[in-house]
TrEMBL record:
Full protein name: LacI family transcriptional regulator
InterPro entries associated with the record: BUG (IPR005064), Bug_dom1 (IPR042100)
Keywords: Signal
Record organism: Bordetella bronchialis
Classification via PANTHER family: BLR1237 PROTEIN, TRICARBOXYLATE-BINDING PROTEIN
Amino acid sequence: MIIQAGVALCAQVLMGSASAQAAPDFPTRTVRIVSGLAAGSSMDLVARTISPKLAELWGQAVIVENRAGAAGNIAAEHVARADDGHTLLIAQNAITVSASLYPRLKYNLRRDLKAVSQVTAMPHVVVVTPTLPVQNLQDFIALAKSKPNQLNFSSAGIGNADDMAAELFASMAHLQMMHVPYTGGSQALTAAAAGDVQLYFPGLPVSLPLVKAGKVKALAVTSATRSPALPDVPTMEEAGLPGYQTVLWYGVYAPASMPDATVKRISADIQKALQMPDVKEKLSGAGIDVVGSTPEQFQAFTNAEIDRWAAIVRERNLKVD
């Protein structure tokens, strides 16, 4: 009887422990979502769209904190070191590029951060300066091949998503072009509109107004299917570059010290927020597709992206001092 009572008591303790792990006490205070891009960016829009919804679900304030610089690595390093249990990171493609591009990175993405959920995805738009004598992607490829290292493409900085989209294009089309990095995406897009560079791969939301105004010419979108926002613009495959596909994605990460049960709770609530009609309407209106994924799915996606871009970094001999 004593043994049976002891077993029963142990079972109750274990069940209580499992229950506590399944329903973590989170959050107990304000939650910070740290962004590696400046206020006003598409990623900032996404973060500030879902943060009030998470605040409603959690009953605690959720604030967005911008720590821009170094392709998002300043923000990533800050969150990797956070130990308060209430700090999250929203990041984009560049975080998976940094793993191979920066030799002295002060954090390890696989070791120091946990994937929580991919939040959104959107295509890049291949835009050229309107005075360039090309009508489609094949025209541009032919022109670039006839003028090796004479055409320029802009980006928001080495290793950013727009840079890597262009590097992938140059690799697959066998082009030699010059890279002109700017301090931000708006400057890179302005340079393309002004003719200071010939090519740019901006995200759909920021490029849409200039495309519709005729200030840049859209040759293709980089997603697998056409964008409803630009239904007349072909995909890269349709434009004559089979196999090319990449999207600008945003996702949430947590410090490695955060318990798995808490990570799963946050992931589930992010997915709930993304399915709210007003959230979907606001983001889709900006040309942004909601995703939502489990921690396991997003970790697998992150690992695949690290490997994919490491190969491009090696092939293109990209370096950051």
